[in-house]
Amino acid sequence: MARASSGAIVAALLVLAAHVGRPAGPASIAWAVAAHDPPEALLVQPVHASPRDLGFKDLEGRDVGLEAFRGRVVLLNFWATWCVPCREEMPALERLQRAYGDKGLAVVTVNFKETAVKARAFLEEVRATGPALLDPQGTAATRLRVIGLPATFLVDRDGRVTWKALGERDWDSPPAREYFSRILAPAP
């Protein structure tokens, strides 16, 4: 009996983890007051960390750090091919990259613990064209305390992580686009 209960608990936790942080829908949308605060619709959590020493691999196996994106705002998205919510949010990330890439945003996707071959095939399937990195051992995810996928972090122009979002988001929704327009606008 204890074994069945443990299995049921694990299954319930997995289902809960897949839905944690999902926006409840249009009724939950509220605009942020401060100019650079994300809208409540994105349901993000504040983080204050410096990811300078996070190491990744590119799809060709070369070492890459976030310093390669210095001076840009980086939306760092951890995903895996087996993650259904990751697959569902990838088109919105691609649209966000296309809309704001020339304005200083880098949408950087990070595959969690899979091979370059598997990651590349997935990215081609979903037609993602932005920068893609690998976290083959899960080291970066562990250091950023990723507890479920997808997990997305905003890294400011100075290389500091300012917030994280656990679970799927509609990254090109009107509140998200308003937010990215504000944070990417040139300083007055």
What fraction, in percent, of the residue positions are helical?
A: 25-40%
CATH class: Alpha Beta
Order of helices and strands: HEEEEHEHEHEEH
| SSE class | alpha+beta
Question: What does the model show?
Answer:
The protein has helices spanning 2-19, 84-100, 116-125, 139-143, 174-184; strands at 45-49, 55-58, 63-65, 73-79, 105-112, 132-135, 151-155, 161-166. The chain is globular. The protein has an eight-stranded mixed beta sheet. The protein is built from five helices and eight strands. The model is unreliable at 1-35 (pLDDT under 50). Helix 3 (116-125) links the parallel strand 5 (105-112) and strand 6. The longest helix is centred in the N-terminal third of the chain and has 18 residues, at 2-19. With 188 residues, the chain is α+β, with helices and mostly antiparallel strands. It has a single domain (2-184), classed as Glutaredoxin (3-Layer(aba) Sandwich).
Write the SSE topology.
Elements: H1 2-19, E1 45-49, E2 55-58, E3 63-65, E4 73-79, H2 84-100, E5 105-112, H3 116-125, E6 132-135, H4 139-143, E7 151-155, E8 161-166, H5 174-184
Parallel strand pairs: 4-5, 5-6
Antiparallel strand pairs: 1-8, 2-3, 2-6, 4-7, 7-8
